[in-house]
Specification:
Helices cover 31% and strands 19% of the residues. With 232 residues, it is α/β, with parallel strands linked by helices. It has a four-stranded parallel beta sheet, with no helix packed on it. A hairpin with a 3-residue loop joins strand 8 (180-183) and strand 9 (187-194). The chain is rod-shaped. It binds adenosine-5'-triphosphate. Adenosine-5'-triphosphate (ATP) binds next to strand 8, strand 9 and strand 10.
Length: 232
């Protein structure tokens, strides 16, 4: 059967007919002006054709047919009062007002999503706990190191002596041979007196031109950080 374009046809009622198969696409191609479509009790089957979303339908009766699968949600399908779908086997999805069951093919997707979220929560909280523990350990170690630092908190070593070259020069009588104590690999040691005779010190003059002198000086500073010497 062939039907030409019937764009002005507003209402089509083919209910109570023994039609079968899928809804013919002719409705979309030739009946674009259709507002009311009654396909009830016609024995149509298959998936609901999505093209019915595209035409300006205001009423759609699909009751008592054999439709199945995912129900569309747009166009006339977005209005629960405009459609009738009673007694159709295995319809699912659609707008929530229709209270159709969730479609089985979309369910695993949702389940996957929610189960991956459920997996993420303990993972993230574990990570957060680890970061927190590491942070606390670092803070604890820093505090401990600060306490153990002899230069800062020791009661007998609670200061750093600030002296100028001039102070040392006069303390050692201009680095005189009379004050000379001895030589090391990279330095010469002089005895000196600071603070108007109150403090006896050993002054180490490093020969920075000598190769390795700076490295030796740095490792000596490092060692001095950890030991105490009555002359230092
Ligand atoms: N604080 C000090 N009080 C008294 N004498 C010191 C003091 N420091 C060094 N001396 C004397 O100066 C000498 C040279 O010391 P220095 O520290 O320059 O070299 P070293 O450590 O003995 O040798 P190297 O530089 O090869 O390691 C020492 O042998 C020591 O006799």
């Amino acid at each position: 059967m062939e039907i030409g374009p019937l764009n002005n046809l507003g209402k089509l009622d083919v209910s109570n007919n023994m039609l079968s198969g899928k809804i013919p696409s002719i409705i979309y191609s030739s009946l674009r002006g259709l507002e009311k479509l009654d396909l009830s009790r016609t024995n149509f089957s298959g998936q609901n054709p999505r093209f019915l979303q595209q035409i300006s339908l205001k009423k759609l009766n699909l009751s008592l047919n054999q439709f199945e699968g995912q129900f569309p949600t747009e166009g006339v399908f977005s209005n629960a009062t405009a459609i009738s779908i009673t007694v159709n086997k295995n319809l699912c999805g659609g707008i929530p007002e229709l209270k159709l069951p969730t479609c089985p093919n979309t369910e695993p997707k949702g389940r996957d999503k929610s189960s991956s979220i459920k997996l993420m929560i303990p993972l993230l909280s574990g990570l957060l706990a680890q970061v927190l523990i590491m942070y606390l350990v670092i803070i604890f170690r820093l505090k401990k190191a600060k306490k153990e630092s002899p230069l800062i908190s020791s009661p007998t070593w609670g200061f750093l002596l600030r002296v100028t070259h001039e102070n040392l020069f006069s303390a050692t009588n201009g680095f005189s041979s009379a004050n000379f104590i001895g030589n090391g690999s990279f330095s010469s040691i002089y005895e000196g007196v600071l603070d108007l005779g109150e403090r006896l010190v050993a002054v180490k003059v490093i020969n920075i031109d000598q190769r390795g002198a700076f490295k030796s000086f740095m490792s000596e500073c490092e060692a001095l950080r950890n030991i105490r010497h009555r002359n230092h």
